[in-house]
Amino acid sequence: MITHPDEPTLRLFDVKDVESGRPLHPLGAMYIRQLRTVTAWAREYLCRPHPELGRRGPVCPYAQGSIDRGRFLLAIRPGRPETVEEVVAAVEPYRQWFGELAPRSIADSMHTAVLVLFPDAGRRLDLIDAAQEILKDRHVPAGVMVGEFHDGPPDKGGLWNPLLRPLEAPVPMLVVRHMVSTDLPFLTSRDQHVSAYRAIFGDRIPAHLRDVVPS
Question: Are 119 and 78 in contact (CB under 8 A)?
Answer without folding.
Answer: yes
